[in-house]
Structure formats: structure tokens, C-alpha cells
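It is worth pausing here to work through a concrete case rather than discussing structure prediction in the abstract. The textbook approach is simple: state the sequence, then state the predicted structure, then interpret. We follow exactly that order.
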Amino acid sequence: MSEPKQKIELEYILRTSPNILYNRLSTPSGLSEWFADDVNVKGKNYTFMWDGSEQEAELVSKKDNKFIRFRWIDEEDEDAYFEFNINVDELTGDTALVVTDYAEEDEMEGSTDLWNQQIEQLRHGLGST
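Step two, the predicted structure:
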């Protein structure tokens, strides 16, 4: 039995509206701008494609303009998921994207670096750099 995965939470301030950001996090066209090369959706199943390989995730739950949670279909750890939360600071009006993911201990740094790269692509697509 493998070790349980460690939770990673990363927060990014993005200059955009929750509505525009949610569109990039929840639609095939939005996700293919920054997260994967291509995305297909069939019901609750999202197929993400990168450089000829693909991985399938199930949409677990969502709330428009607030959050969306996916779980990899081939993930053995039942508690592991990845989630995008959108928080708006009431004082500053800043939109924060909180990414929650799970990785094995020796993969934490690599996963964090990968998310940082992906979010840079998202920022670029949003014109939020």
C-alpha cells in the first residue's frame, strides 16, 4: 500500500473577474487555453490531453463562479482530488485562485512547480501578468 498523498494548497492573485476565471476553469475551451492541449467532456468525465497522452477526471462538484473539483479516474487514493477555488477579497476586490492538489511527498516540489507554470499560462491568457 502506498503512502497517502500530501495536500498542496497554492494561492494566486489574478486580475480578472470571478466569472471570466470560472469560465477558464470549467469549460473545455477555457481549460485547453492553459491546463491541457485539448479537453473533451462527456457527461461528468473530462478527458485532458497533453502531447499525445491523456488522462481522465470526473467532475465531483462545482458552484458557478466559486469552485470546481475534479478527481482523476485512475487515482487510487480516494481522498485525492484537484480543486480550483475562487475567492474575492471584500476589501481590495482582488480575485484569488486557490489550487488544491495532492502529491506524494517526493513529488511535492515538482507538482508545485508545474502548477506555477500552468498558472503563468493562465495569467498570460487572461492578460493578467
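Step three, interpretation. The two ends are 42 Å apart (CA to CA). The chain is about 25% helix and 40% strand.
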